[in-house]
């Protein structure tokens, strides 16, 4: 997924397009205590209908009591809001979505992926079971002053999780800017007194910086609300273990990951799947392609699927296309027949990819592939500790030393560079493993290079799925590239021999934009590369101008931030309600606008 994790904070998330002046502000979700008080009896004829949509009986009873038995639209509006807000865990409730134990239920027993490296710190942090002092220190590290952090803890309570405390501070700061008398409502937000309603989706948004964006959002917000309703009306579909035995594994809400994780089948598999059913409303063109980490909190992929036309994810591990694991899920409406691989075919083992390491590789290091390549690397202090421990040990080392060394080597993707000496992969080695040209990120600091590469696509894997576009667009393709990063999608299309006649690239990191622009110029691309620096600035007007100049879009591609989804993020793994990962809804918003605009052509 092409996105830099540290470029933005939670105040950057803007979902104000969900509301306009013609629609009432979205209501507050009920407090946790209200949900715990038990289900109130209701004789409403609407109750079975809403229960069939997947809403809980308590939630439906609350909404009916508030809006009356006959107000279907208002009840549904409340239920949609309750459902979205319920995704944010509070206290110990809902913590099962975030604890490491969930990862044991996903059917993929390959423990090599770095996403599996969780510990109890994450569970305690999310559940609120940490001391006042630690929470105060964590909030200070997030950039809040000691007085502000202390006041938030005293106001909200010591048992409130860190992410909820941070949200309350953001909300208070917003309230102070907008004026008026505001009060904390006990549900992770502030509301204005004297009858003013509060929009839970915009309480921590940054001030709109895109000229003309607000009006265009208002124009399309009614359509977006209808799409939101359809997304929650859409029944859960059956998903399959793609590449496995093909048997259904249950409803989408109880999604299991396939093992092996080979999507619709590997290129060498004669029995690979060649056809699938796509809902009529999702059929291309324009085609779309969405990517994110496979190992997410429970319920994330079913939610993404509902918003993306009910299409089931295709889960693929890049270890079948390179020498490094990278478990990813993809939702797309592309054909799946006639796929082909990039050439030359990359090496798929460590020693084949880096033969110089063979001379120093100990026999007890049984690794054949690297784990998921991350945005950071092991420190020099760690590699020195490993060297000192091995020097002080016999040959071979005792089992406890081998276990410790192997754990660190797997976690940090260390490679043997001498006797008893390991080192992190160099940036150019990571570029090679991810399928980028050599020196693609050269010219920036090692830290920035690792960060940009760690958030990128694995080019060979994505190219295999995009390869069907070469025959569909022999004269070139027009691309909307969201969360472009360092250009993983563009590099994949270029290596496939697909000419890009026009690309609208949306990327928040100026470093990533520079890397992509440099590659575009150096490779002699003849098409036009247009750039927007924020998905929140991609409005109807921006898209209409591009379509007027170039005739439309053939492909919408991107992967929204995985910060609050990945297992390696122990502290803020909040699902799609997280500070960064909620940007997925902008992918959904923009895709919906594009498909509506293209339907006119």
UniProtKB/TrEMBL annotation:
Residue ranges of the region described as Disordered: 1-43, 88-116, 198-225
Annotated InterPro entries: C5-Methyltransferase, C5_MeTfrase, SAM-dependent_MTases_sf, SAM_MeTfrase_DRM
Database matches in PANTHER family: DNA (CYTOSINE-5)-METHYLTRANSFERASE DRM2, DNA CYTOSINE-5- -METHYLTRANSFERASE 3-RELATED
Active site: 562
Chief place where the protein resides: nucleus
tRNA-binding as UniProt keyword: no
Family stated for the protein in its record: Belongs to the class I-like SAM-binding methyltransferase superfamily. C5-methyltransferase family.
Keywords of the record: DNA-binding, Methyltransferase, Nucleus, Repeat, S-adenosyl-L-methionine, Transferase
GO cellular component term, pick one: nucleus
Localization per Swiss-Prot or TrEMBL: Nucleus
Superkingdom field: Eukaryota
Swiss-Prot/TrEMBL GO biological process terms: methylation
Protein name: DNA (cytosine-5-)-methyltransferase
Biased composition, class Acidic residues, residue ranges: 1-12, 94-116
The SAM-dependent MTase DRM-type domain, residue ranges: 274-601
Polar residues composition-biased segments: 29-43
A molecular-function term among this protein's GO annotations: DNA (cytosine-5-)-methyltransferase activity
E.C. number(s) listed in UniProt: 2.1.1.37
